[in-house]
Specification:
Layout lengths: L7 E3 L2 H4 L4 H7 L7 E3 L4 E3 L18 E3 L7 E2 L12 E3 L7 E2 L12 E3 L21 E3 L21 E3 L7 E2 L12 E3 L7 E2 L12 E3 L10 H4 L7 E3 L7 E2 L12 E3 L7 E2 L12 E3 L19 E3 L5 E2 L5 H10 L2 E2 L3 E3 L23 H12 L23 E3 L4 E3 L18 E3 L7 E2 L12 E3 L7 E2 L12 E3 L10 H4 L7 E3 L10 H4 L7 E3 L7 E2 L12 E3 L7 E2 L12 E3 L21 E3 L7 E2 L13 E3 L7 E2 L13 E3 L19 E3 L12 H4 L1
Parallel strand pairs: 1-42, 3-4, 4-6, 5-7, 6-8, 8-9, 9-10, 10-12, 11-13, 12-14, 14-15, 15-17, 16-18, 17-19, 19-20, 20-22, 21-23, 25-26, 26-28, 27-29, 28-30, 30-31, 31-32, 32-34, 33-35, 34-36, 36-37, 37-39, 38-40, 39-41, 41-42
Antiparallel strand pairs: 2-3, 24-25
């Protein structure tokens, strides 16, 4: 665990430079908007509203930090006078264009950080000249496509981060040239299709992060191209079934994460061609049964928490296999009633009694009465015939995706194949979703209705969508939702309502969504969070309320969401930390309060969440004063504290935060006198 000696004070440069006459000698060749540490060959020009790369930077500079400026464009050979650069930070610079040859001449560069910009595409030769580059950060941009050859000149890169972009498809040979890449991060995109050769040419790849995407079926052929993979992260994708026919063949795979998806069935040989698999994570799915898994002689850990496991007669083979193969497992029984809540690893096969003829039939009837029926479609079941595709739409049987995006439709079309799992109706023009709008789509997992001018979902609009997990209603004109409108989708886990006209959280509607995991209400017109607004949010883990008009969060308003892990209240109108409202959130890990007019922090402001909080964001909040006891009660779990872009001239010491790894203090007008000495120490 990192100790206090490893804390990063991000750009508290004036405090760290030598004082006295030597200080002047260090700064004499420095651009006016920058701070130079010549002995270490570091130059920082952060948050200076620079519109171009400053001139007169010392030629021997090795680390250049331009974070938080407004460069917008990186022209050709922008850094040609800095051939010794090894680290270049261009985060948060509003960069929308990187010209071809922008980084030519930087043959020694090891780290290039272009995260959190506005890039939608990368020209073919934008990254030429970076033959020594080892790490490329492109997370948090708007990249919608990757062109083969983009990374062709990056033969030394070991880590490529493309998380939090807008990628929907990976073409063949997308990463050609990355022969030394060991970790490829593609999480938090909208990927639904990977070409069979998308991951070809990655012989050194050991870790692949594809969690939080829109993959409906396991792209086994594409994944099997990366034969050296040891860790594969596929959680938070709407998979419903996996079988041997998915052709996943990864002989070196040690860890496979399939958590928090929509899995309802798993074939015994689904991972038979991954013989070295050690850990299989299936938490948070919809599995009520699991067969003994074949071909996994080295499996030692099976994670099953959060599945509605049925510990009846049919679970005996699973328990016998777990004991025989010495596999440690977690998870608890959903039923039968006598075993509900029992830990799976505490049961013996003999505990699952089948007394007399007809017991299995009785058990099946009880299971049917207490659990939503698993949809058809797994092997061995008779799947219904797929219907025709509506005019103006495209239906792809291989991926079970149907799309009518941007076709000018004025009503929700009907007649999609009944095995459709993803339905894309974005950018059409129908103001109302009528009752029973999606007949025959009981296997639908992901429904996209963004940019449709919607003002209403009628009662019963989602009737019959028993498998729906993702519902996208962003960028419409909705001001309310009723529980009757959302009934019929009991497994809905992710509800996206950003950029609508809500003035209150649709609390009554949440009562119809017992499985709701993540609620997105960013950029609406909410002005108050009151008790009862989240009465139906007992399963909520992530709540996003950024960019509203919230001036008050009442005590008790968040109380029903006791499992909450992420709370985003940034870019609102809160004049103080809503301390009392944070009571009763024992699992909160991340709290976002940046961009609120806080001005000051009082003693014990975060005490209610002190035992759990790991990441606290208070940047750009107009903070002028922080009480000496403001952070009392926090720790020891706090890992990062973000205080950048405030009006702080001094800051008390942080003695109780023993596990801090990052403190960002950049962009504050610190007065570097003795008052800062305790913090510096």
């Amino acid at each position: 665990m990192a100790g206090p000696q490893s804390v990063s004070l991000v750009l508290l440069i004036p405090l760290l430079l030598p004082l006295g006459p030597n200080r002047c000698a260090v700064a004499q060749r420095c651009p006016q908007a920058c701070v130079c540490d010549n002995p270490r060959r570091h130059v920082a020009c952060r948050h200076q509203n620079l519109t171009e790369v400053p001139t007169a930077i010392p030629e021997l500079t090795q680390r250049l930090d331009l974070q938080g400026n407004v460069l917008q464009e990186i022209p050709p050979a922008a850094f040609r006078d800095l051939p010794h650069l090894t680290h270049l930070d261009l985060r948060h610079c509003q960069v929308g264009l990187v010209a071809e040859g922008a980084f030519r001449g930087l043959g020694r560069l090891l780290l290039l950080n272009l995260a959190s910009n506005r890039l939608r595409a990368l020209p073919q030769e934008a990254l030429d000249g970076l033959g020594s580059l080892q790490r490329l950060e492109l997370a948090g941009n708007m990249l919608e496509e990757l062109r083969p050859g983009t990374f062709g000149a990056l033969g030394a890169v070991t880590t490529l981060n493309l998380a939090h972009n807008a990628l929907v498809y990976l073409p063949a040979m997308a990463f050609q040239g990355l022969v030394r890449a060991r970790w490829l991060q593609l999480s938090h995109n909208a990927l639904s299709v990977l070409a069979p050769e998308a991951l070809a040419g990655l012989p050194a790849l050991r870790r692949l992060s594809l969690h939080h995407n829109e993959l409906q079926a396991l792209p086994g052929a594409a994944l099997s191209q990366a034969r050296g993979l040891a860790c594969l992260e596929l959680g938070h994708n709407p998979f419903t079934y996996m079988g041997e026919e998915d052709e996943l063949a990864l002989p070196g795979l040690r860890e496979l994460r399939l958590d928090h998806g929509a899995l309802q069935a798993l074939d015994a040989r689904a991972f038979a061609r991954c013989p070295r698999l050690h850990t299989l994570d299936l938490r948070g799915n919809q599995l009520d049964a699991l067969p003994p898994l074949q071909g996994l002689g080295q499996l030692r850990r099976l994670r099953l928490q959060g599945n509605p496991l049925w510990c009846g007669c049919r679970a005996r083979p699973l328990l016998e296999w777990l004991a025989r193969a010495r596999v440690r497992s977690d998870g608890a029984c959903w039923g039968p009633r006598l075993l509900r809540g029992e830990a799976l690893d505490a049961l013996r096969p003999s505990d699952l009694r089948c007394p007399g003829p007809g017991a299995e039939e009785e058990e099946a009837e009880e299971l049917k009465a207490t659990r939503p029926r698993t949809p058809d479609g797994a092997p061995g079941e008779e799947a219904g015939a797929a219907g025709p595709c509506p005019r103006s739409c495209v239906c792809v049987p291989e991926s079970r995706h149907s799309s009518c995006e941007g076709r000018g439709l004025q009503a929700v079309p009907r007649g999609f194949p009944n095995d459709t799992q993803l339905l894309d109706l974005r950018r059409n023009r129908f103001p109302v979703v009528p009752q029973a709008a999606f007949p025959g789509l009981g296997r639908l997992v992901s429904l996209h209705l963004q940019h449709c001018g919607l003002t209403e979902l009628e009662a019963g609009a989602l009737a019959g969508l028993d498998s729906l997990v993702y519902l996208y209603l962003s960028d419409n004109r909705l001001s309310g939702l009723s529980a009757a409108a959302l009934e019929g989708a009991p497994r809905l886990g992710y509800l996206y309502l950003e950029r609508n006209h809500f003035v209150r959280v649709p609390g009554a509607a949440l009562l119809a969504l017992p499985s709701l995991f993540s609620l997105h209400l960013q950029d609406n017109a909410l002005d108050h969070l009151a008790p009862g607004d989240l009465a139906g949010g007992r399963a909520l883990r992530w709540l996003y309320l950024s960019g509203n008009r919230l001036a008050r969060v009442s005590p008790g308003a968040l109380g029903p969401a006791r499992e909450l892990e992420q709370l985003h209240l940034d870019r609102n109108r809160l004049g103080e930390v809503p301390t009392e409202a944070l009571e009763g959130l024992p699992a909160l890990l991340e709290l976002q309060l940046s961009g609120n007019p806080l001005r000051a922090l009082r003693d014990g402001a975060f005490r209610p969440v002190g035992r759990s909080l790991q990441h606290l964001f208070l940047n750009s909040s107009g903070l002028e004063q922080i009480s000496p006891g403001a952070f009392s009660g926090l720790g020891p779990r706090l890992r990062s504290l973000h205080l950048q872009k405030n009006q702080l001239r001094t800051l008390p010491a942080l003695p109780g935060l023993s596990e801090l790894e990052l403190v960002d203090l950049s962009g504050n007008p610190f007065h570097c006198d003795c008052q800062l000495l305790p913090l510096h120490k």
